[in-house]
Amino acid sequence: MAIVTYIPRAIPLTFLEGRELPKAVQNVLRNIPYAVLGALIFPAVFFIQENIWFGILGAAAAFGIAIAGANVMIVVLGSIAVLAIFSGFL
Amino acid sequence: MNGREFSAGLKAGTSIAIGYFPIALTFGLLAKTTGLSLLEATAMSIFVFAGASQYIALSLITAGVAPIVIVLNTFVVNIRHFLMTASLNEKMAPDNRWKKALYAFGITDETFSVLATQKVHKITTAFAVGVITIAYGSWVVFTSVGHLIGANLPQFLQAAMSIALYAMFIGLLVPSMRGNRKVVSLALIAGAINSLFYFTEWLSTGWAIMTSTLASAIFIEWISRKGVKKS
Fold first, then answer.
1. Residue A16: which pLDDT band, with cuts at 50, 70 and 90?
2. Which of A79, B107, B155, B156 has its CA 20 to 30 A from that of B66?
3. What is chain A's Cα-based Rg?
4. Does B82 sit within 8 Å of A12, measured CB to CB?
5. In what helix (H) or strand (E) does residue B57 lie, and over which residues does it extend?
6. How far apart are CA B217 and CA B6, in angstroms?
7. How would DSSP label each residue in B139-172?
8. Closest CA to B130 of B16, B53, B220
9. B79 in Cβ contact with A7 (< 8 Å)
10. How large a percentage of chain A has pLDDT more than 70?
């Protein structure tokens, strides 16, 4: 398990070191982080608990706090706090 | 190693450590009920350091699946990291290959997300090592703690903390989305395609994330190139 988790992590970082990729490939690779975040968030965020309202409320809280301009740590702690209060009402 | 960069990395990785805390704790606990010793559970977190794969491995061990199947499954789940580290390589400061091979071990969905969204031109090795150290530390330590105490967090806290990593992803994404339609489209299209895979069950999670990411990234590059040619 250790080897097969390591291979996809290490090969691109070592093999591509010092190599110039074609411009188009570079552009696609630069797009990857934001696309990854979209795919990591949706739809999994809605299914964090069996009760879907946890996911909906948690996502709304996180987006709300982030759009208000808070840093990542505040977004994380704030969303946890919102859901902790919410589950107190259940 | 640059100490200031390393500390900045530790700080940037703190939200990952918080997010890993409940997951590692639960993993330790589940590993115990699956029959793994404290040493085995901790060793798995030390050597594998991949949340989803480790959880799947537990359920496969319980099901009595052959070890080779567990290994193959782990590989498939982690193929998406090829894409992430290839992308991250564009952003990392050049360094010796052996150093890069070392910190490559610490690239997960979460450490990748924190590193790739940094607003600097090039990320230093020291910064990456800082982010990875705190994330890895949290993962390994809380795996052991979960196994040792053999109990979970109170239900309400467990439920509330399950938002942590997603909140972090959102907190990393939103500042880049502001006034940037390209970033908004990249995230929304990838999320939409991934949702399609989820509900139709066409692809397993690992493949689905990789395919939707790649499709969105290529599509947006193609669109923006057409836009440039027209104007």
1. very high
2. B107
3. 19
4. yes
5. helix B51-62
6. 31
7. HHHHHHHHHHH-----HHHHHHHTTHHHHHHHHH
8. B16
9. no
10. 100
Nearest-10 crossing angle of helices A2-15, B80-89: 30
Tokens of B172: 């990393």
- Assess contact for B44 and B70: CB atoms under 8 A: no
Between positions 154 and 183 of B, the ones with CB within 8 A of A are 155-157, 159-164, 166-176, 182-183
Domain ranges of chain B: 3-160, 179-231
Measured over the CA atoms of residue A52, residue A63, residue B14 and residue B89, the dihedral's sign is positive
pTM of the predicted model as reported, rounded to 2 decimal places:
0.92
Task: Summarize pLDDT for B91-119 with one digit per residue, the tens.
Answer: 999 999 999 999 999 999 999 999 999 99
- A60 vs B contacts (CB less than 8 Å): none
Strands annotated E in chain B: none
- Closest by CA to B88, choosing from B104, B77, B74, is B104
